[in-house]
Design a protein that fits this description.
By secondary structure, this protein is an alpha+beta fold. Strands 1, 2, 3, 4, 5, 6, 7, 8 and 9 form a 9-stranded mixed beta sheet that branches. The protein has one domain: Nucleoside Triphosphate Pyrophosphohydrolase (Alpha-Beta Complex), CATH 3.90.79. 27% of the residues are buried. It has 2 helices and 9 strands; from the N terminus they run ββββαβββαββ. The mean pLDDT is 95.
Length: 152
């Protein structure tokens, strides 16, 4: 089981989005996602969040919120539990030259026009509607979304 974090940094009605376009082998290649990544051994979700945001943007988070856990169940890759966060304050200027791909501020009203995973659309819709708790199980078959279940 993979454990990861994903953070949507917010500023002036925009989310900082990452187009995964730099690695040759990347499950997310060509998709827009937030910033984040896999847990290292013995890391807490907050430690992983802060480390990944620093690695991908060069900034230190000051204010962030935990929204919930999104469980990805997929028959073509390892299951993943992703800890979902938003962030609204950080120290420093974001380095837009990310090693993972292209970073860009995207107006929230344009997010759904991007090339996204179908499951990401489910939790992003909730976030854009202002829902503050997101706990989902997303089921994929051959990388196609086949089921969505909300958990309490």
């Amino acid at each position: 089981m993979i454990r990861s974090t994903l953070c949507y940094m917010e500023k002036d009605g925009n989310y900082l989005m990452l187009l995964r376009n730099k690695k040759k082998k990347d499950l997310n290649k060509g998709k827009w996602i937030g910033v984040g990544g896999k847990f290292e051994e013995n890391e807490t979700p907050e430690e992983c969040l802060k480390r990944e945001v620093l690695e991908e943007t060069g900034v230190v988070l000051k204010r962030y919120a935990f929204l919930g856990i999104v469980e990805f169940r997929n028959d073509v890759c390892e299951d993943e539990d992703m800890y979902l966060f938003t962030a609204s304050e950080w120290d420093g200027d974001i380095d837009m030259d990310c090693i993972e791909g292209t970073l860009k501020w995207i107006p929230k009203e344009e997010i759904m026009d991007l090339e996204l995973w179908e499951g990401d659309r489910v939790f992003l819709n909730k976030m854009l509607e202002g829902i503050e708790t997101v706990n989902l199980t997303l089921r994929y078959h051959d990388n196609e979304l086949i089921g969505t279940e909300e958990r309490k």
